[in-house]
Amino acid sequence: MRPAEDTAEPAGGRPAATAEHRSGSAPGTGEGPQPHRSGPAPATMEGPQPRRSASVLVSGLVVTAGVLALVAMASVALGARSVPLSTVIDALLAPDGSSDHVVIRELRIPRTLLGIGVGATLGLAGALIQSLTRNPLADPGLLGINEGAALGVTLALGLFGLSDPAVYVWFAFGGAAVASVVVYALAAAGRSGAGPVRLALAGVALGMVFTAVASAILRMDAQTFDRMRFWLTGSLAGQDADTLVRLAPFMVAGLALGLTLARPLNMLSLGDDAGRSLGVAVGRTRVLTGVAVTLLCGAATAAAGPLWFVGLVVPHAVRALVGGDQRWVLPYSALAAPVLLLGADVVGRLIARPGEVQVGIVWAVIGAPIFILLARRRRVAAL
After folding, report:
1. Which run of H or of E encompasses 176?
2. Which residues lie below 8 Å from residue 5, measured CB to CB, with a gap of 6+?
3. For the chain, domain boundaries
4. Average pLDDT per block of 10 residues along the chain, 383 residues long
5. CB 307 within 8 A of CB 363
6. Is 363 helix (H, G, I), strand (E, B) or coil?
7. Domain 97-123+134-381: which topology?
């Protein structure tokens, strides 16, 4: 397959540098001369990136939104007890207090909306991290950010007895922020810098430490352990509309901030020096991206627990379809991730009737093989 080309066009009308203008091989391969860059090379997918017209890409967004609506309807209608579509519509338009209507309005609709919010936040967070670090292995779970947020929630519940989501979400934000800083510091130590593999190794190691500490805290309190054992697996069950209302402002703020960073991230893909020459405030962009990721991962983890691979797999699939322009990658990732997450949640409900398999387990079964395939592709893993 041919090397990928950067097709994004920065503001001002000057075309971005293509792969034909770059010399040498991918960083970390040890082959050929390397051009001087400030910071790591941009992460690109193996193979040519497609060039789509704006009308085609907008149509794709509309189609993805339509698919999300269909999956959401399936999430409301399917479960331990399937409900006819007519009953779902009646419950939305003219509820009568029947058991089916109560289940739909008080359990399934909040769960579906929460799945949409969690999927969108994790998908966008993964795309932002991969773009900022130019690291194709970057992911909120793989870099330990989700585990840091989970440890924060565990501390809030296990040590301080804080059960209000509006309160312990701040502990999730703090844990996510600490994990981000520590992982980057560990990976950047030494002369080789924070390369993709070093970031992944540091994130996995720190995530294991956070998980071990959280497990130790839970073993000390049986009541907290019973409450959190399903949450730590990753689940959309058990949350009501009040939880969604309390966490929605943080999710919306993170989504809005993240989507506004598409253009500066496009310019930074050419390197820090090139980004500065195009008018990008590099430090400000990095700080704002970090804030957006912290908001997104903190809110998602507080709502559904640590979910792996969502932010890793979805942006890769999106870039393979729409190219590397962040103006399209970010919104596509925010729409495609909840489709897959809600789909996995529905599958978990159907394969274990009348019980269910948590969405974190179902998604891990789907995402882990995909991650292994990505890691085995030398050009992607070494970028």
Report:
1. helix 165-188
2. 18, 19, 20, 48, 49
3. 97-123+134-381
4. 42 42 41 44 44 86 96 91 87 86 90 95 94 81 85 87 81 90 83 70 89 86 75 81 88 96 91 87 88 91 86 88 92 96 93 87 84 63 40
5. yes
6. helix
7. ABC transporter involved in vitamin B12 uptake, BtuC (1.10.3470)
